[in-house]
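Predict structure. Input: ATP/GTP-binding protein, 703 residues.
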Amino acid sequence: MDGHAEDDGRVYQSAGDQHINEHHYYGAQRAVMGGPDSVRRPAIGRAPTVLRDRAEVLERLQASVGGERGGEVYVLHGMGGCGKTAVAYALFQFATEESGRIGLWVNAADRASLRAGMLAVAADQGAGDGELLAARNGLRPAADLVWHCLDRSRESWLLVLDNADDPEILRDGSWLRSSSRGTTVVTTRRAAARWWPGAELQHIGVLPRDDAAQVLCDLAPQSGTREQAAAIADRLGRLPLALTLAGGFLSHQVLDPWTMDAYGRHLDDGEWVELIDQGADVLSDADPRHLVGRTWQLSLDAFEARGLPEAASLLRLLARFAPEPLPLSLLNRPEISGVLPRARCETALRVLLDHSLTELVDVGVRCAQSHGVLLDSVAASTPRDRLPTLDTTAARLLDAAVPAHPDAGPYDPQLRLLAPHTLALLGHASQPSVISDVLTVAKRLSIALHRTGDYMSAWETANAATNLTEQSLGAEHRLVLATRSRAGRALFRLGRYTEAELLLRNVRAAQERIFGNDDADTLDTSHGLQLVLANLGRREEALTLLKSVVTGRQAVLGAAHPLTLRSRASLLTMLSADELTANSDTLLSLPSDCDLHLGPEHTVTLGARHNYAWALYVLGQFTAADEAIQLVCQAYKDRFGPDYPIALAAQQLFARTQFALGYTESGVDLMVDVVARRERSLGFDHPFTVASRELLGQFRARR
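Output follows.
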């Protein structure tokens, strides 16, 4: 006879009578025979010295373990490292030391640990050896045995199921139940309510700034002041795990102790995720949950194992952006297909939300936001061969989100939200082609912000973008110079005339030397510089420069180009009455020319009508000027709102025409409103505000 055996099977052959007794313990069951050394003490890493903040959460949880209360199930959910286990530990200590309950602690990170831990709970609560053996061998439902014992416990209890990041494990076998004899607390990264029917969910987030600073001071009191600790806490996003590791590092330095300032400087040097993780206990097991560089890798590995690679891809894409609110509309674009199919983006985002790797926030725009330490950790662990595709896709998404041809308009909150993500991508990207593409987006974004009146964001975006790219592209790269020119334009609108003049002069000199006087970028910088010179009172220099811009733009762009017409319209505000009269045939027909070439609603056409009304005022044609500027004021208010800078400039001219026509009270009232609005939007000391306040004073003195 022939026979064969596989795995743990055996083949016996005999020539006579044999009597064989065997006792079999198969491998899969042997693995679960063991259990945790204790369920009466929390199996956690470094326990918090003092639990900071969380007072409101703990108060509610502590009430649930008072007296004979029971039946409640609480789920503490949040991103990895936010301190869910620390809150559960504090509750455990309170329940066992002050409320007289027995505490039971089970690691629910995987099936084996959960099963072994829960059977150990059953043993603790009086289950017999035969019952436990039957449960281990699959002859009796293990979960039923555990909860039978818990339901009949002579003492009230608190059961903590820690690290339950895979709710399917709890659902299979119905391990999570409630009992009138005790309170159950679950810690998890899974936030979706569908996993926790009947439970009360409690989000655990990052710490407030003062409490985060105090954590560092608790752990390393000799390393620095609270102010220094607060600065480091901000750098670490106030994440409890990162704070604990940083404090541990500072407190354990012996030969060369670091101050908090020194630690902060090293955080800014580069590989700061590795620096933080050096604060882990050297002799303890390298549990990924206790290291910021590895804790989120657990989720990425789980995505791959469960056939959800798109979730990992989306998280790696988010890590190319900033830890700031990211408009959801940015992710709902066909350009995302470079990283994951657009049709799968919804599912991938839901998975990230469910695992507390991002959250939804509403800042007037629906956004997703992820923690900075998480994003930096994911970015640091992203395979290098994936970075070019991720950066290119991120650049294309931003490019699609920023208007291709920014126009003047009311404040747009989404534009400001895009700025930190554009700058973050510039900081991450390493390929020159991608850097150029993103810098192009940054320049266009600065223009768009400028034209909505958000001059500070426009300056910050352009200034930071050039600082980030000068080294990689070169200080005299065309895009770098053009973007720095936009920074100068924004400085002018912020009232920082001296800085604006210096910056624009330097940029213009470089552009003239490299590209020539009539290059489009040179002419654009020159147009911005003449605005500064005019407001500094250097009229002749400004007028000469503006005339050269008009001539250059006519030659390069053509007479009907919007930029040419804009510069020609600017002449209307610069010329005296005699000069206007001498050029009346060409200049006073500008509104009609703009209507013809651009249309009556074009921004340049409205600006030409505005400047035309000023020219009429200068010529002493007050009635015509008044009629013209009233129409412009109404058009600006309808399109931009009453606080828009150009709308206020038009209203100021309307006040002048009203006062000149003898409607003094109307003129004063209009100027009072202009001054109030400029003080709110630009500030009390802005040159535009000061000029408006002086004009109001003149009106009041003459009425």
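The domain at 621-703 is CATH 1.25.40.10 (Serine Threonine Protein Phosphatase 5, Tetratricopeptide repeat).
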